[in-house]
Amino acid sequence: xxxxxxxxxxxxxxxxxxxxxxxxxxxxxxxxxxxxxxxxxxxxxxxxxxxxxxxxxxxxxxxxxxxxxxxxxxxxxxxxxxxxxxxxxxxxxxxxxxxxxxxxxxxxxxxx
Amino acid sequence: xxxxxxxxxxxxxxxxxxxxxxxxxxxxxxxxxxxxxxxxxxxxxxxxxxxxxxxxxxxxxxxxxxxxxxxxxxxxxxxxxxxxxxxxxxxxxxxxxxxxxxxxxxxxxxxxxx
Lengths: 112, 114
Fold this sequence. Notes:
Chain A has no helices and 11 strands.
């Protein structure tokens, strides 16, 4: 069963704008990860944030985690057309080994 | 560096035919291995994961099975395919640790059951 739910399901912006995607989950987690998927390809890991962290940066990516609200957000700043892809959050459920649960994803379109 | 190979890239099979998808990992030892399925425009559904040779955990009851005959080889099989087995199948690996290391995915197999 899925654990995370991304919001919105689809997002369309102009190049240069910021894109914010949200993820909510239901159970206690060890960490939360964001992945990117280009159409018809495998997923690529972007960033991992642990349950005791509140914010993390990687290049143009900024991830926040609020464990009290069981939610996370992914911000992509100064978006580019090449950022067009689907973005998924995945949670590592606490005390469950080797089990990553994915949401349904946000489809991001960046128009040039 | 570690690499993951998954084949074939696309497959069209008739209902009732058998299935065998193979995945191999290079450059790491004793990885966790996973099979996911992704329906069109949807998220990933975990089908099987393995922490070692011959150790398979199944997430959903279905006509699919998985095997891990070697440390870095993971095979997804079916004796008789159903129309509902169509989808995008992804193999992935992660390092064995307690924290939950990132997953590394293959490029997937697009399966169409006709």
